[in-house]
Specification:
The chain is α/β, with parallel strands linked by helices. The protein has 14 helices and 16 strands. The strands form three sheets. It has an eight-stranded mixed β-sheet. The chain is globular.
């Protein structure tokens, strides 16, 4: 069995993968949302007595990494933590001549203090790292497959070396914005400007939304995001989940094309939409490349009005027939999309949290 729990992480990500035979399950946690979310995640995990085999911190954005610092300062979590993947300044610096990380970068400092295995298994080039520190989590020339506990593996699609290098000039700014510098309070990214209205009578159809011309994401922090296909085997069965982080869409497309056989679609059982269902990350090219029955959305829409209608429309129009859209919040944005494009009349299924609840669990 494989379960994917999308914790109520406000407008961020906090995702728990649980897999393996009963009583011998393994767990991978991907991100920890905002600062307050980390405390909620720690409490839930402690109540269940969960051991986290791997904690993946995808990138330096407050809605993904904010809760990581509080988690790593919570003994009930760190006492039951096996390893961490996170690209710090030293990992980015392998791909550039820039120097000068800011002092007091809290996540790195805490990982050093804990002496927890950090990026272990990823090759380190210059030989300067401690024994418990590996190299950058990066797809150097093509997607990289790494073993995970149990019968699982991760096929890394993002970031590429160039995307890591692109973040270096922005490092100090994004670290401060994420609240990772001592004495600095994290701040949210500015809200995007409202999109121009649509004057078509009755509003755009799903096909018109899917065909809308939208720009791709170019934010350096998002481009550095760790994104991978999680795969677990149980006998002759194989289950895959694409965890898109906030990765740039063309990086995901390029990586998937390298592993898809003979130009065919790449089959996954579910896809966590990159960047919370942003139109700038969920492109037609990405959706068309996947054979995917379930599209997962992690956000309450409070900061960036995600998921965008264009992204959801692309999943319905260009994805596998009869797609299922899974949401961890029944936000006003989701309610509006469902009202404008009712599932039963539009060829898709919507799965929402139980009434009055937030967060959702998907079982594959």
């Amino acid at each position: 069995m494989l379960t994917i729990e999308l914790f109520p992480a406000k407008f961020g990500d906090a995702i728990l993968l649980t897999y393996g035979p009963p009583g011998k399950e393994s767990h991978v946690l991907v991100d920890a949302g905002l600062k307050g979310v980390g405390k909620t995640v720690a409490k839930r995990l402690a109540q269940r007595g969960v051991f986290i085999d791997l904690f993946v911190v995808t990138h330096v954005d407050i809605d993904h990494i904010g809760g990581a610092v509080s988690l790593l300062n919570t003994p009930s979590f760190t006492d039951r933590l096996g390893a961490v993947w996170f690209n710090g300044f030293k990992h980015l610096d392998q791909f550039s001549d820039l120097l000068g990380p800011i002092d007091g970068e809290r996540l790195t400092s805490r990982l050093v203090e804990l002496d927890v295995p950090w990026n272990v298994g990823w090759p380190w080039n210059d030989g300067s790292a401690a024994d418990h520190v590996g190299g950058p989590v990066v797809a150097r020339t093509k997607p990289v497959k790494m073993p995970l506990p149990g019968t699982a593996s991760a096929l890394l699609l993002s970031p590429t070396p160039q995307k890591l290098a692109n973040l270096l000039p922005e490092w100090e700014k994004v670290v401060k914005a994420a609240g990772l510098e001592l004495g600095v309070t994290g701040r949210h990214e500015p809200k995007p400007a409202p999109e121009p209205g649509n004057d078509m009578l009755g509003g755009p159809t799903l096909k018109e939304l899917a065909a809308a011309d939208t720009d791709d994401d170019t934010a350096p922090a998002n481009g550095s995001s760790i994104a991978f296909v999680f795969e677990v085997k149980d006998g002759g069965r194989r289950k895959r989940v694409l965890l898109g982080g906030d990765a740039h869409p063309q990086v995901l497309v390029d990586g998937l094309r390298q592993v898809a056989k003979n130009g065919a679609k790449y089959a996954v059982d579910a896809c966590k939409l990159p960047h919370h269902g942003s139109r700038a990350n969920v492109t037609t090219a990405l959706v068309q490349l996947l054979d995917c029955p379930q599209w997962l959305v992690s956000t309450n829409g409070s900061q960036f009005s995600h998921p965008n209608a264009e992204a959801l429309a692309r999943c319905v129009v260009h994805g596998s027939p009869g797609a299922t859209l899974v949401f961890n919040y029944e936000s006003t944005i989701v309610q509006q999309f469902l009202a404008d494009h009712p599932p039963h009349a539009s060829g898709y299924t919507a799965v929402l949290p139980a009434a009055g609840e937030e967060g959702i669990v998907v079982t594959l």
